[in-house]
Amino acid sequence: MSDQVYDVIIIGSGPAGLTAGIYTSRANLKTLLLAGEKWGGQLMLTTLVENFPGFVDGIQGPDLMMNMRAQAEKMGVEIKEEEAVGVDFSKKPLKVGPYLARAVIIATGAEFKWLGVAGEEKLIGKGVSACATCDAAFFRNKKVVVVGGGDAAMEEALFLTKFASEVTIVHRRDEFRASKIMQDRVKSNEKIKIKFNTQIAELFGEQKLEKVKFTSGEEMAIDGLFVAIGHAPATDLFKEVIELDEKGFVLRKQQVKKYKMMTSIEGVFTAGDVHDHNYKQAITAAGYGCEAALEVEKWLEEK
């Protein structure tokens, strides 16, 4: 256990965590950021990012995260590529592993749920994606498959019809679980085909995705595969420590109206996809990181 007490410890190194660090360090708050062994969040698995403001020609996801990290370090953020373990928020100072802090920002993000089939991992970013909003434009006049049966899968498929020539939704059950209005929109769209009672067994391609094989043995030549079976918030560390919703996302308690990023524990704030299951964009995560940092600064001043 270190005797040093940081003003703030940030857990997570995606856009939310690094943006929060930039703001807390600029406010002269001594900041430790625990980045994790695989730092950078979901953007490290993304190729070209075209919708982050300031990059006219787009920027590669890992390059964007390297820039954010360099900026945070330049501002004075101490970054350790360590996993956060053993949090104790029951007393002050707050404890994260061997480190102590007056305030904590949880920005651990959320992870895409992948299919876990052969060929998938090596083709992520090479035709396999979990974000149509991010990558649909790369599949203009191409054939794509969407996997899933909920509202998110319907939204992905409908968005893809603006670009792709053909969209096929693959669902393992005999009916969707999506809302009726979303199902109606999908079923009335001429570009969308549906394959019920179907599961993917394997993906093929070297430099890019070329075809998919179903468990029935049928194969289909495609250019893109969008996995829309949900997100899992990275909150295992905080179960029974802070309040989470039924899906495991961090709850913002807003104990005091001016601290809308505070969790159920005073002095513990949150930012990004770990609490946001609506937008899930890099720019919104960064915005939440800014909000959390400004609130930490104000809260510490009051204390």
Automatic annotation (TrEMBL):
It catalyses: [thioredoxin]-dithiol + NADP(+) = [thioredoxin]-disulfide + NADPH + H(+). It comes from the Bacteria. It is an enzyme of class 1 (oxidoreductase). It holds the Pfam family Pyr_redox_2. GO terms for biological process: removal of superoxide radicals. It comes from Candidatus Amesbacteria bacterium RIFOXYB1_FULL_44_23. Binds 1 FAD per subunit. This is Thioredoxin reductase. Its EC number is 1.8.1.9. The keyword Kinase does not apply. InterPro entries: FAD/NAD-bd_sf, FAD/NAD-binding_dom, Ferredoxin-NADP_redctase_2, Pyr_nucl-diS_OxRdtase_2_AS, Thioredox_Rdtase. NCBIfam families: TRX_reduct (TIGR01292). Residues 6-287 form the FAD/NAD(P)-binding domain. One of its GO terms (molecular function) is thioredoxin-disulfide reductase (NADPH) activity. Keywords: Disulfide bond, FAD, Flavoprotein, NADP, Oxidoreductase, Redox-active center. Belongs to the class-II pyridine nucleotide-disulfide oxidoreductase family. Its cofactor is FAD.
